[in-house]
Recover the amino acids of this structure.
């Protein structure tokens, strides 16, 4: 690892996407929990450059929405009220990265709220909820993957290095965990943990449960690497120089597992994001009003929402680039590790 | 180094009736025993070279691993300078180990591929722990010079070195601990002929200047005769013939020795063709 | 035979492991759960006393485990607090529905994946293969949940397919044909969602496994002998690639069971998924444990089936002796 490898394009994309979520306060126009009870299920506003008389405006604008004649939930554009998009505006208070208090937002509109992804049942801005929700989902995924990989490293290294009955026991256990359908396992674990918890507890609960479920695959891979590394001559040589077990693990054996661990992490993160989404979608994860990608979609479980307010599905589509990024990164890392293997 | 001087000086290494069995456990039922070493005895005297020659699978490498304390023998005794290696505690074993260094066959496999030459060279020094950081660098440079490597190579990775350079690096690393015994386990086998000769010369120079003792393990009888003061031929875990190189080359007694001799491509010694036996 | 014995031992080990895990859960459960139950006015105090004695809280653990396994074998999977009846009959109905869904998906997905993957491997690196790889990669990117919801949104917009439940309200009055049609229509969406979610994984693995085999010298030789391409692919290459594919089969059962858990909830299919979710929310612990055990049973059964298949497909395994 002497910086000779080019930085992956996927990594750049992922960092950019995560920055949007990390600085959600700045990129989101509103507070994700701020309600506007008078405007539930507002459809997404379209951005225009041409007004209805065909004049061009360099500054994009949206038309305010009004209830369609004779309807109680169908909106139409009110062409008399244009809402020009303003950049770098002052708005709701937030703390950048949870530290710096600020009121600066990337964009917004004067007089009236602008809903680029529509609003939910309480008139909350879906775009803001998506960006803030990503914090919970992405970081549950990242942290969960981190915990899992670390756990896998410890178990795999112990099994591979010490061998014998420890190896047998740990690997049988790993086989068991690998064979079980993970969602059932997740359910079973979740069933024993308290249901009504605060958002922060729920977050850490999810991370812990994910770590407990996923450790088996990285553990097995790490074990394989450790087994082959400890038979290498340079490890023997170091032993001949009087090295202790701790030294050998720290300096020679564990560094050899780094590429396996990185690949595993890249594969696990999207799986765990999805797991968090699934739990929150089913009401077993992070509770309202804190947004997460899972509970953002859970309103679609109601048939009426599904029929009338299709745009509640939009956040699901905006998530896809995140998953694409991780998939790309994962397969690229895998290819670097085994360049001649036929890709699966 | 003549045969007479052996009798007067103390042997550095004494091996008595060494036995090493591996048990291969089958998935179902029976345990299969493999006798890698089956009662081996010899001595190596200070400043001399003993060559162990044999075909692959004859137990040469197991012998090397037992001597270097990587494997525990099943039975038999090993003495290193009057210290018996059999009943040693792990901590004392670590101290002894430093005095017996092993040079491996595959130089590509014997260095951590992510480490630079300097890191590789200083590793034993760091582990020994009696040099300060400032002293290590000059010591590493001196070691490079000692084995005829340029000091510019310090920042290179082992994968960027040639086969001969790598083997020199391996020797330099082992010398860092000022060992008394160097075990060369097929150390020349992976190299080209001309490079083999260079490394062999280096080994002889080091022996002359530092008074090193070698255990040279090889399947190449010609190279063994070139380097060693005494040759032991091994087959199926036992020493089948032992003697001075000239003796072995001219009057091979054992069938195995004759087969090994026949495998030597060109031997510029005047000897009757093998067919006559 | 040795192979089958070994695989049976493996299946037994899995069941034992899961039952131990599940038992650990039940051991954790009673203490607090009976206490919670006391506060529930719907459950009679006698019931609680009966349950306490039945779960033998005062006996040593190994004894309790053995008794628990014996009662399991008699079909006693514990007691549903929410329904106030034994768990087993409740679970079995749901499990049947889940099985109907997953078996259909399994047949469909493999039926599509095998020819598609083999065809792709045959055209390795050429345009059709690359297009297919892009397609499967695209499907791989879309998470199950997003895919299922998307299908649902589309189905609702089109208004042609039923979007929930297993049968229509008037199911009982339909003729046999009508019943079948109704059931198939209700299955369409969940089956589509599940097939699409497991398909990319299967196609990619089949492709890689067959492509690897196609490079083997014995197949090149067979090709040189002028054996027709089709025979070569299906009679030579596919059996040779059977080993990794059978492992994949076992893995795909696990994935599918997880996937169906979620998709049943989204599409309100009355299988184990919604039932388990409801049980978790109601803290109905024996239902959860029973569900997990049943799913493991499916998994082990499916894996064993795959092993039988491999035994049939791979002569090396049939003649295997010892080691």
């Amino acid at each position: 690892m002497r910086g000779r490898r080019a930085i992956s394009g996927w990594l750049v994309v992922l960092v950019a996407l995560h920055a949007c979520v990390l600085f959600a306060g700045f990129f989101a126009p509103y507070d994700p929990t701020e309600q506007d009870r008078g405007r539930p299920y507002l459809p997404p506003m379209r951005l225009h450059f041409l007004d209805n008389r065909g004049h061009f405006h360099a500054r994009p604008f949206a038309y305010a929405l009004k209830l369609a004649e004779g309807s109680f939930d169908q909106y139409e554009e009110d062409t008399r009220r244009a809402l020009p998009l303003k950049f770098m505006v002052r708005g709701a208070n937030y703390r950048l990265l949870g530290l710096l208090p600020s009121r600066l937002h990337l964009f917004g509109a004067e007089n009236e709220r602008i809903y680029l992804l529509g609003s939910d049942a309480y008139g909350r801005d879906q775009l803001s909820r998506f960006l803030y929700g990503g914090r919970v989902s992405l970081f549950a995924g990242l942290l969960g993957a981190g915990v899992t990989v670390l756990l896998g490293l410890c178990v795999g290294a112990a099994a591979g290095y010490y061998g014998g009955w420890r190896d047998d026991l740990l690997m049988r256990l790993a086989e068991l965990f690998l064979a079980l359908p993970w969602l059932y396992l997740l359910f079973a674990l979740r069933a024993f943990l308290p249901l009504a918890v605060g958002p922060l507890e729920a977050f850490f609960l999810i991370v812990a449960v994910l770590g407990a479920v996923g450790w088996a695959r990285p553990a097995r891979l790490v074990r394989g690497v450790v087994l082959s590394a400890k038979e290498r001559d340079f490890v023997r040589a170091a032993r001949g120089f009087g090295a202790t077990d701790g030294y050998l693990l720290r300096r020679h054996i564990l560094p050899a597992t780094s590429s396996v661990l990185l690949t595993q992490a890249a594969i696990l993160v999207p799986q765990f994001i999805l797991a968090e989404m699934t739990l929150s979608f089913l009401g077993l994860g992070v509770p309202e009003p804190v947004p997460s990608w899972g509970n953002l979609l859970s309103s679609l479980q109601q048939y009426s929402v599904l029929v009338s307010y299709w745009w509640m599905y939009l956040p699901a589509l905006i998530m896809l680039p995140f998953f694409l990024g991780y998939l790309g990164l994962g397969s690229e890392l895998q290819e670097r590790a085994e360049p001649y293997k036929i890709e699966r | 180094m003549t045969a007479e001087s052996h009798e007067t000086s103390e042997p550095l290494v004494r091996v008595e009736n060494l036995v090493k069995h591996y048990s291969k456990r089958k998935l179902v039922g029976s345990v299969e025993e493999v006798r890698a070493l089956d009662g081996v005895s010899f001595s190596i005297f200070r400043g001399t070279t003993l060559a162990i020659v044999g075909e692959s699978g004859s137990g040469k490498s197991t012998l090397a691993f037992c001597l270097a304390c990587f494997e525990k023998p099943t039975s038999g005794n090993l003495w290193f300078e009057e210290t018996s290696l059999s009943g040693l505690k792990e901590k004392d074993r670590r101290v002894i180990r430093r005095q017996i260094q092993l040079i491996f066959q595959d130089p590509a496999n014997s260095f951590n591929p992510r480490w630079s030459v300097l890191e590789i060279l200083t590793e034993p020094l760091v582990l020994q722990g009696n040099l300060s950081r400032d002293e290590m660098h000059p010591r590493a440079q001196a070691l490079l010079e000692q084995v005829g490597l340029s000091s510019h190579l310090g920042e290179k990775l082992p994968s960027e070195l040639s086969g001969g350079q790598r083997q020199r690096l391996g020797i330099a690393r082992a010398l860092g601990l000022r060992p008394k015994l160097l075990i060369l386990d097929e150390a020349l086998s992976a190299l080209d002929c001309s490079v083999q000769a260079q490394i062999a010369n280096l080994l002889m120079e080091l022996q002359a200047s530092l008074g090193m003792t070698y255990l040279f393990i090889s399947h190449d009888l010609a190279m063994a005769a070139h380097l060693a003061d005494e040759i032991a031929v091994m087959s199926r875990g036992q020493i089948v013939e032992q003697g001075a190189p000239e003796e072995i080359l001219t009057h091979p007694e054992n069938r195995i020795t004759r087969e090994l001799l026949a495998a030597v491509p060109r031997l510029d010694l005047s000897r009757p063709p093998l067919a006559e036996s | 035979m040795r192979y089958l014995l070994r695989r049976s031992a493996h299946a037994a080990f899995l069941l034992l492991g899961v039952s131990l895990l599940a038992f650990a859960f039940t051991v954790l459960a009673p203490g607090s759960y009976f206490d919670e139950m006391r506060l529930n006015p719907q459950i009679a105090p006698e019931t609680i006393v009966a349950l306490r004695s039945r779960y033998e809280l005062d006996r040593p653990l190994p004894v309790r485990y053995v008794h628990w396994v014996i009662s399991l074998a008699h079909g006693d999977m514990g007691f549903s607090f929410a329904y106030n009846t034994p768990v087993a009959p409740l679970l079995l109905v749901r499990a049947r529905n889940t099985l109907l869904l997953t078996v259909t998906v399994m047949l469909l997905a493999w039926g599509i994946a095998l020819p598609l993957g083999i065809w792709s491997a045959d055209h390795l690196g050429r345009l059709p293969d690359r297009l297919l790889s892009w397609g499967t990669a695209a499907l791989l990117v879309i998470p199950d949940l997003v895919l299922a919801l998307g299908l649902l949104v589309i189905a609702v917009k089109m208004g042609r397919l039923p979007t929930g439940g297993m049968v229509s309200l008037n199911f009982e009055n339909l003729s046999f044909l009508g019943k079948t049609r109704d059931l198939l229509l209700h299955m369409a969406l969940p089956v589509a969602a599940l097939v699409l979610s497991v398909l990319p994984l299967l196609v990619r693995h089949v492709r890689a496994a067959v492509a690897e085999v196609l490079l083997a010298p014995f197949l090149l030789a067979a090709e040189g002998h002028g054996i027709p391409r089709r025979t070569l692919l299906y009679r030579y290459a596919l059996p040779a690639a059977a080993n990794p594919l059978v492992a994949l089969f076992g893995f795909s059962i696990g994935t599918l069971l997880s996937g169906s858990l979620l998709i049943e909830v989204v599409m309100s299919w009355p299988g184990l998924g919604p039932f388990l979710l409801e049980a978790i929310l109601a803290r109905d612990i024996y239902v959860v444990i029973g569900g997990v055990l049943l799913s493991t049973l499916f998994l082990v059964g499916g894996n064993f089936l795959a092993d039988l298949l491999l035994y049939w497909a791979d002569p090396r395994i049939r003649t295997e002796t010892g080691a």
Notes: Chain B touches chain A through 23 residues (CB under 8 Å). Residues 193-210 of chain B form the longest helix (18 residues). The first strand of chain B starts at residue 11 and ends at 25. The domain at 3-262 of chain B is CATH 3.40.50.300 (Rossmann fold).
